[in-house]
Design goal:
binds cytidine-5'-monophosphate, 28% strand, alpha/beta
């Protein structure tokens, strides 16, 4: 314990966006730098945990002391997450694309007489919900994120119920918040116990405070 409150614990973190192929050169993607998720993985490792970070395509370095599994699509992310289980703590910070193209083209789609192509989308698996709702092998603490541009707390509460996770870290990602790709984050923790709003902090400080909080919940120890 002490400065290693997660010693001997297995922690799974998802981070970054997913890229859903349209054809060999084009993708459907979310905006996500991966900075908050990567910082959480680094903070968990610093707290002594055995960390697997499943990350979509990002341009930031791998955190030190962490096992990194690089994926592209939501389906690859789900498979890697299942591979990485069991875990004591699972944190889903990735910005997963809600939809993918039903059948991606094996060849580059050409501009032509037919005009722009129509993309038929199908829903991606919900990785967080599928882990949180597992009958067997559910991690004791499952944490989701809610990136919202309005009604942040309301949406986070609804998400908590819909996904079946224990805690939602909610943040305002409206363009005027500067959170997207930025250094700082302002989060609120939403759980069955209520809502806790934190002041704006660097993403590293948010990660450390979150990990301290999760460790307390997991071990019942004071952090
Ligand atoms: O409502 P939304 O699906 O955006 O909820 C976001 C939370 O769910 C995040 O924790 C995100 O990582 C997770 N998620 C997921 N798989 C999806 C969509 C979202 O794990 N397909």
């Amino acid at each position: 314990r002490g400065d290693q409150p997660l010693k001997g614990r297995r922690v799974l973190v998802t981070s970054g966006p997913t890229h859903e192929p349209i054809d060999p050169v084009r993708v459907l993607a979310n905006r996500s730098s991966g900075r908050q998720g990567h910082a959480i993985a680094a903070a968990a490792a610093a707290a002594g945990a055995d960390v697997t970070l499943v990350s979509g395509p990002v341009s930031i370095p791998d955190p030190a002391g962490v096992r990194v599994v690089a994926v592209e699509s939501a389906r690859e992310m789900l498979a890697a997450v299942e591979q990485a289980l069991p875990a004591d703590l699972a944190i889903f910070a990735a910005a997963v694309a809600d939809w993918r193209v039903e059948t991606d083209s094996a060849q580059k789609i050409k501009k032509g007489a037919g005009g722009p192509p129509t993309l038929r989308l199908v829903e991606n698996p919900d990785i967080l919900a599928s882990v949180a709702r597992r009958a067997e092998g559910r991690p004791p603490l499952v944490v989701g994120f809610a990136a919202e541009t309005q009604n942040v707390i309301e949406n986070a509460r609804a998400k908590l119920a819909r996904k079946g996770c224990d805690l939602i870290v909610a943040n305002d990602v409206s363009p005027e918040s500067g959170v997207m790709g930025g250094d700082r984050n302002t989060v609120a923790l939403v759980s069955a116990e209520g809502v806790e709003r934190w002041d704006a902090m660097t993403k590293e400080a948010v990660a450390q405070a979150l990990i301290a909080r999760f460790a307390t919940r997991l071990t019942g120890a004071s952090a």
